[in-house]
Amino acid sequence: MNKRNSILRTSYAVRISHWLMVICFFLVAMSGLSWFFPSLNWLNGVLGGPQLARILHPFLGVAIFLFLAYMFLRLVKYNLPEAGDGKWFANVGQVMSGKHVDELDTGKYNPGQKLLFWGIMGLISLLLISGVVIWRPYFAPLFSIPLIRIGLFVHAASAVLLMLLIIGHIYLAFWVKGSVDSMATGYVSRKWARVHHPRWYRQATGEAEKKGQS
Ligand code: HEM
Fold this sequence. Notes:
single chain; mainly alpha; two-stranded antiparallel sheet; 10 helices; elongated; binds protoporphyrin IX containing FE
């Protein structure tokens, strides 16, 4: 993409965190699914077989949490709820059908992305906490059997919800043409920014200040 017609949207450090986290996520999700049904047992081959998968799964889970914690610190300020978010949800049908409603004036991330951000961060926190409770042989002996049972349930339920959220996230990332550039090269076209995130476009290009001065 021509750098003159593009704007930096995602920093190198955030992109590296995102993609390392994605690799870990797929390894952890596949090895986790291998324990859900006997017919999926073969999936633990992604981590070198049942014994190795059982050892590596929790460590890679912690790595996912740390990468996401870094992304949280870098991106939380753009994902805070704002007064206009309700209007975006009220018009979500129009947004999904590709019609752009000017008065929504979306910032860096739209309210749907914000919801996904908080969903991912909430579920990964539940997965970490419940994962520690059920982590044999290190931590599980510190907890009672009923608590470990609750931990197992919370871990499985949050994992399924997170996988469903991520399927939606990947679908939307490819469905909104030009979005993947944001995480691949870091740059998006000015046109994409103006159409999908007009308020962020004005802030990123300094147009908001020019508007204020005139
Ligand atoms: C093939 C898999 C994936 C693709 C193609 C993908 C794509 C993307 C893209 C394009 C963005 C930037 C959107 C924008 O700038 O508007 C993004 C952001 C993000 N992704 Fe992914 N992603 C994938 C997997 C994941 C996974 C597995 C997770 C977490 C478990 C995740 C968590 C996030 C988060 C937290 C953000 C920041 C969103 C925000 O701040 O609102 N992604 N992803």
